[in-house]
Amino acid sequence: MMQTVDMIIREVHAGLWFLVVGYYFFLFIFLLFFRWRNTRNPFQFAMAMFFLLLAIGRCFYFVGDFYADPLSLATGTPFLDGTLDFWLMAGSFIQWIALATLSATAGFMIFGKKEAQIAFAIPAVIIAITLGFIPLEPTFRGLLSGVFGAGYALFIPLLFWYLAWQSGGMLRRSNLFLGLGFFVLFAGRVIHAIRYPMADVLFNNSIAIPGVIAPGLIIIGLIFIAAGNEWGQTG
After folding, report:
1. Are 99 and 131 within 8 A, CB to CB?
2. How far apart are CA 103 and CA 116, in angstroms?
3. Which domains does the chain have, with CATH numbers?
4. Handedness of CA 223, 228, 233, 235 (dihedral sign)
5. What digits encode the pLDDT tens for the residues 106-165?
């Protein structure tokens, strides 16, 4: 019975992450071909690349989480046993480079200086290299990603909320929603990064709840981001 429940939960997790990846690709196509092509706004292009890299990185995570991680199964051996580190390291590197791209462009758009662009990108690049090329113990990897992810969960939204404070009308609403969307998105990413320690402490070693919360929050965040971007074009 428990094995059946575990398989159902696992399939729900997989379905939610499929939806997340699909939404990432949708936002990439929308921003690149329906926004940046018309406006040539570098931030629109950076956001498009951000979501493309998130989608690619999440594909690596997906394989690692569901086909290489022994903890993802109640019993048995994963199909790609012994390859988990490769998938997680590749996914981490790509997704943190995505974050570096967005941070650098946001810094330049707000402050208009190359120095700000470099300063905003450097922390994410360092984390990308650390997680992508240095073998780490899984718990430490998750905590490292979670802690720095939490920092960006505050940093990126604060940039948009600062822009909202500086602007008005529909543009203010757009930036407020973009900030909220990125906050919720990064909150979901943090929960995913620390899902196993979180399960041990809060959910009696069950990853069912954090496993569903993480992609659920990301999907909600993406909806806010899409709405905020649309308002930004009509304001």
Report:
1. no
2. 10
3. 2-68+84-234 (1.20.1070)
4. positive
5. 887 777 778 888 888 899 999 999 999 988 887 787 778 878 877 877 888 888 888 888
